[in-house]
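Hey L., structure's done. Input below.
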Amino acid sequence: MRAQRTVLVLTIVAAVLAGCTGIPTSGPVERVEDESGFGESTVRYTPAGPAPHATEAQIVRGFLDAMLAYPVTHRVAAEYLTPEAADEWRPGQSTTVYTGAEVSSDRVGAGRIDLTADVRLDAQGRLSRVAASRRWDLDLQRIDGQWRIATPPDGVLVSRDWFEDYVRTFDLYFLDPTGSHLVPVPVHEVVGDQLATSLMTSLAIGPQSGSAPGLTTAVPPVQDLRASVPVVDGVAQIEFSTRVGDLAPGVQKRLSAQVAWTLRQVPVVTDVQITGGGTVVAPAGEPVQDAGGWTSFGPDKSRRWATVVLDGGVQQVGPRSREPLAGDWGSNDAGASMVTADDERVVAIWRDRARVSTANGADPVEITGERFLRPILDIDGNAWLVDRPAGRTRVRVHDGESFVGVPAPNLPGLSSFAISPDGARYAATADGRLFVGGVERREGRVVGLTDATRLATAAGARQVVWVDGSRVAHLGPPGSQVHSLRIDGTEAVDAWPGGGQLLPDIEPVALVATAAADSDLYLLDSEGGLWMLDRTRWVAVDIDAARGIA
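Output:
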């Protein structure tokens, strides 16, 4: 249906242009097979170049239309510019997405574009919201008797339909300050034959401000990257101008991990080969590396269960198993309201206190508090305890040795708090609003939280969990579904990613996503029932009434 809509839009554009003297109709439109798996439009569009004796407005209108070429090429658009402007124009600098456009000319040698725009992409593909109305005043000059644009807008301008048809969200993978974990940054790229090149170029630009605190990269700068990344028999061939094969083994591993995790999102890429200056990156000894490798740099997948507090004990519930928590906890819940655990530590919450201990209960350390939220064990084994004394947000972290108070923004009405699987970000809900911020670390220790950025939600948010490093999900108001969206505010859906998994007739009170592959999801309802998402449907877990889940 989207492809049909695009054809209709192009037909209308052709009809409008046909009514302008001297302007030809739009170029050929072809249907091709959708081979990428991203559900993009199968329509290819080759716009027409400038016609002889076109007016200023017609040249500006043709330039606007030429930026809708797919597969993406700016060759035709550049034909509408003066030679100097064509040399200086940088279409990759930004992309402005508009929902409406008007072209006019109120004097000789001038043109105007008035857009109703909603989003903008920077050179890396990161999305930001823009003002509803934008205006570009363009100067035109005569070149060999023909009008050409001398002052084009920065970047390119594309319609919302074009954006929805051909642009999809991906993640660039950078390194945390320790260089041991990969942290995803969501970007938007045009799908098609040049996807591997686009992703690699964006990755080589490096981490930018606002992505997450302290991100680093082992990827050489973009000016050292060969312009194209061909994919031959499934192998993405990345070439730099520097001798990357001479880098220290640890740097080669981090470089390989960043490239592999980023390019594995391209359906045709199965392996990567990284070369430069006659050298090859082969930290494991193989010049061609598996794009699905380097899992050690990804989020911890060891915790594949939800920890459920029952009268008489605590159980670990997984997709295909259920067993008591190791040690005394398995037979005695000790009156705790919530318990979370990994292979080495257990964190328990009561009404007015919290306890951190080893997995077998040894070396317990307790702190007091008021209205604790769900306890957290992050990828580095830090135990996070968040409470709300006198209505203020208080965050304390136990790093295995002692508790440390962590400076954090105050979020009145705080109702939930979660740390991303890579440990780089936090998410929170407060007074029905959803927030995301960064975790600041120094020498591997948590030292603070950045200010929170609010994400727009269609419904009030009362509890949030992380789906993966760049997507969160939250419970809406009573009677609503589970909602999910990316941390840049895009791809919001009224269901778990994939859609269709509607809640049964229950009142959910707690939501948990484990660190397992595909983020297994569990719900606790108001009557103590436990539910698990089994791909396309929610199924009840045969378990006694639960008091808490983590």
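Residues 24 and 450 are 54 Å apart (CA to CA). Confidence is low (pLDDT under 50) at residues 1-35.

-- N.
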